[in-house]
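hey can u check if this looks right to u? its 128 residues, i copy pasted from the old doc so theres a chance i mangled smth
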Amino acid sequence: MPKSIIQTENAPRAVGPYSQGVKLEKESLIFVSGQIALDPKTGDRVQGGIVQETRQVLENLKAILEAAGSSLEKVVKTTVFLHSMDDFGVMNEIYSQYFKTDPPARSTLEVSRLPKGMKIEMEAVAYA
């Protein structure tokens, strides 16, 4: 099979008809679905605003990448969706704590709405 589905209990289960991530075996690429700030143990939204939401999103991405045999250090591209560009500075500060050296390419967009009223969603592409 040229692709495998990534599923880990260390990140929230998919809330729709999609996978947490997909790994392309031949190309060794991993595509992580957009993650929102859900606690993987409870399935509940984390509290604390953009700071806590950003941390949880990055922890969820990290867990899925690790389940696929990768890591945040191997991320080549992220896309960040913010409900308000006013949160950009705070998000950027937290993001830089997870991508300390050689950060991936990134796009950041302001969107009118995110699932479950979240302030941030993030997706990633990495290699194995």
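The longest strand covers residues 75-82.
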